[in-house]
What does this fold into?
Amino acid sequence: MILAFAVLGACQGDPEPTVQPPAGPPTRIAASTADITVAWPDLAFAPDGTLWVSWTERDVNDVVDVFVASSTDGGATFGPKILVDDVDQLFLGTVRQPVLAVSADRIAVTVGGGTYSNGPTILLYVASTTNPVFEGQVLDQAIPLFSPGVQDQDKTLVDQPELVFDQDGELVLNWKQGTKLESFQLVIARERDGFAISRLEDGAPGQPCECCPSDFLEYPDGELMLAFRNNDRNLREIYVGHAPAGGEFGQSSRISTNGFTLGGCPFDGPQITVVPAEGLPDGALVATWADASLGDNYQWLSVSRDRGETWSEQFLVYPDDDQSQTWPSAVTAPDGTLWLSIVEIYHGTLISTSTDLGETFTSHEPELPGGPLFFSELAAGPDGVGMIGTTESGELWYVALE
It folds into this structure.
């Protein structure tokens, strides 16, 4: 995401829920059938306010296609779906999903191809927004972990790509690389460098969490931030890496201090956004994530007033809610309001806003004709905030929140 600022307020506290009406009619974009399963949605706004959404459709033979569609009326209606990928097998499931980004004139989707046992790859598809015919390329390809006749030290994995358009409209991607015998690492590839791969030297102990998605953000001056969950002997704290404008990632700052440990996979990661704040020309950097440091998964928030160098004590977004929560999302609205979402595993998405960096929260319960949404994502455009998600029955819905 690329940022712009206004002026707001400060710090943390307990939520004060208030039900708010929806900002616009929810719109059903796609629906599962007996033969097709709709899943893994994402969304992004172009600078002119055009809304783009992406999702997957899996058939009974496990062939997966990625589609996009666009809306020029705030999500009230969408154009026909457009096929993105041209491969037979995509590396999806758990936290593996297509990720979407849009610039003034291009739309890009990155996704993993293959499987653990059949050539996992990092795929990038790019098209013009005015003529969305996608061209694909392979940015990285692994030697599968279960390849017969290959020595363990030569078996590799690539996974979980993310992407963002920078200030110049050029793509920047990151993903995970790993081997069977050595640790995972985050790597960066920039379009301006021909997508040459460089390692993120973050300085964090251990390695990046091998199964947790990360999140990109770019400041107006070109500094890139990359939030990720770390894994230091199963200690799964949240960090953010820093790359100066035009430079490489050479340092990171620790965000969380919850002491969350897990021998398995958390299957989600942090989200970051910049919120306008009084007295801070660069705004306040806000991070949200879920962890089970208190026994079950809950949503946490932390605030940095110095572009991610130091962080406040983390605090709960829903201190009175004891339901399992996962899959956080965070964006900043055009008016500077912080919007958060988190999925209650058994009840669907919770939505809240704050105009004082977490001092107070307001909960939102939009009309959802298809039922609660899961695997939901937020996005902010020039005119407001929207959410996409899927219902238990496999319907894909867009909801205008502001």
